[in-house]
Amino acid sequence: MDDKDLELLRILEENSRLSAQGIGSMINLIPAEVEARIRSLEESRVIRKYTTVINWEKAGNGEVSAIIELKVSPERDFGYDRIAERLSRFRQVRTLRLITGTYDLQVMVTGKNMQEVSRFVSEHVAPMDRIRETATHIVMKSYKENGNTLFEQQETERLPYSF
Amino acid sequence: MRNFVSERALQIPPSGIRKFFDLALTMHDVISLGVGEPDFRTPWNICEAGIYSVEQGATSYTSNRGLQSLRDALAIHLANRYQLRYSADNEMIITSGVSEGLDIAIRAIVNPGDEVLIAEPSYVSYAPCVALAGGIPVPVECTEQDNFRLNPDTLQAKITPKTKALIINFPNNPSGAVMKKEDLEPVADIVTDRDLMLLSDEVYSELTYESPHVAAATVKELWERTITLNGFSKAYAMTGWRVGFLCAPKEICDAALKIHQYVMLCAPVMGQIGALEALRSAEDEKTSMVNEYRLRRNMFVAGLNRIGLSCHVPEGAFYAFPSVKGTGLSDAEFAERLLREQRVAVVPGSVFGAGGEYHLRCAYAVSRKELTEALGRMESFINGL
To answer: Which tens digits make up the pLDDT trace of B40-80?
Structure first.
């Protein structure tokens, strides 16, 4: 991992669809080397996957998301890892983090509708051993996802020429 | 009725790009590489600080020198970042952008008939400001062979007994050239030997891509004969906030302050508060903008060379300055036809004075997508010649 790798990752994080040639021209590398570096970052699992930031509200598929906070009794020898890994396996769980504060785990969940999300929480999450308490927050509107604002912003007017 | 317009005002030449400006406004789908300002918005924490200050009623004049808190923070910033040491109390004035700083600096030192050397190509206001002060602007050409750095021999040859000062601007608008310490040293010797004042416009100092900026006043004995001009516009994407600063030894600063108090009174207070926030906590924002400019520069300059417009690698600012010599067109012809035929706006280099002919100033302060599109259009244009 060197500076070029870091630059490469920053570029990919912002737009993973750029060509090797396009990326190469920005960081002064030939396309073959860009490809080789990407391959090695994929193999070492620094790059986990390529994805797309979608404004689902605009796409109008009616999906709902919720943030579920969990109080968990940690296990001897494993702490929170085993329960967190079990939860992670559910398709509905999009993001799962161990956090400080009143709750221990923060789970981002999506479902087709409110019923599906609440059924998932009440039937699958809440009854799990070691989960002591849950708090479910339905997402009403998303303004920013993964560093991308989702609301329309006015174009900044600049003069066509200035010195 | 008499003609009331003063001779000095009449003598100011009309803008070199008025024609292009008017033309571009009538056209659609123009990609403008003609803009000398960042395409980023001001980092939000700076905007918040400005908004909050207005809500809190900070809407009055500040002291002529500018807010004490801003000058204190600036003195520390300049010392840490550039090893530039100026007293916040009497060697610093917060100005309404570098434009005002330049004007009052020139007026503070120029007597009628004094010659002022200007390293060109350069920003367009230097010569008119010298003329308005009654001085005589004298261009010193920086050539492509020198990568647009100021050549000490060329400088030496332009000095006469009437020469009072030298104005330089590195990182340079329009060429993107920078002067490293070893480039500034021989200039420092000449300026000192010939007893000149140096005005150093360093507004692009944060935008360097290969090595950190060297402030002219830190080189050799230059401090005591340098007026350092800088501002927040380019580094923090704050052009519209109008905040710059002038730093100079006390006697010079006092003279400039006398002019500043009558022509400007003070820089806008909300701008000054925004600038203070910029110094306090916009370092990461600035770094990410600089990183983005570097990526754009690399791809754009490589692209220009690929399509046949030879271009030195600009080490600072956000301008590429390619040559059009190989095309058989003058820079003005190239720029006008490129705008009409391919809807790409660039500024002809001759507008920036000596050394600019046969070059184009292309600002890469636009998105990568637009840069790619602009390169494609420029390539089509060249292939059609």
So the answer is: 999 999 999 999 999 999 999 999 999 999 999 999 999 99
For chain B, the average pLDDT equals 96
Contact call for residues A120 and A109 (beta carbons, < 8 A):
yes
Q: In the β-sheet with A131-138, what is the strand arrangement from edge to edge?
A: A93-98, A105-111, A64-72, A131-138
Q: Are B198 and B170 in contact (CB under 8 A)?
A: no
Query: Which residues of B have a CB under 8 Å from any CB of A?
Result: 17, 20-21, 24-25, 30, 32, 34-37, 39, 41, 123-125, 173, 291, 295-296, 298-299, 302-303, 345, 347, 368, 372
Spatial distance between the Cα atoms of A12 and B301, rounded to a whole number of angstroms: 21
Backbone φ, ψ for residue B220 (5° rounding): 45, -130
Beta bridge partners of B138: B117
The number of beta carbons lying within 10 Å of the beta carbon of residue A2 is 8
DSSP codes, A18-66: --HHHHHHHHT--HHHHHHHHHHHHHTTSS--------HHHHT---EEE
* Fold of the CATH domain A62-140: Alpha-Beta Plaits (3.30.70)
Kindly report the number of other CB atoms within 10 A of residue B113's CB atom.
Answer: 10
* Burial class (CB within 10 angstroms; exposed 0-12, middle 13-18, buried 19+) of B50: buried
Q: Which domains does chain B have, with CATH numbers?
A: 7-42+284-383 (3.90.1150.10), 44-281 (3.40.640.10)
> Cα dist. B76→A54, B158, B191, B251, B277 in Å?
44, 37, 27, 21, 14
Among the CATH numbers 2.60.40.420, 2.40.40.10, 3.40.50.10490, 1.10.10.10, which is that of A3-43?
Answer: 1.10.10.10
Residue-wise pLDDT tens digits, B225-244 = 999 999 999 999 999 999 99
Choose the mutation target among B368, B370, B371 for the interface with A, i.e. most A CBs under 10 Å.
B368
Q: How far, rounded to the nearest angstrom, does the alpha carbon of residue B136 sit from its chain's CA centroid? A: 21
Position of tokens 């991992």?
A: A1
The Cβ-side half-sphere exposure at B8, using a 13 Å CA radius, reads: 11
| DSSP summary character for residue A125 | I
HSE value, Cβ hemisphere, 13 Å, CA-based, for B112: 1
Q: What is the pTM of this model?
A: 0.89
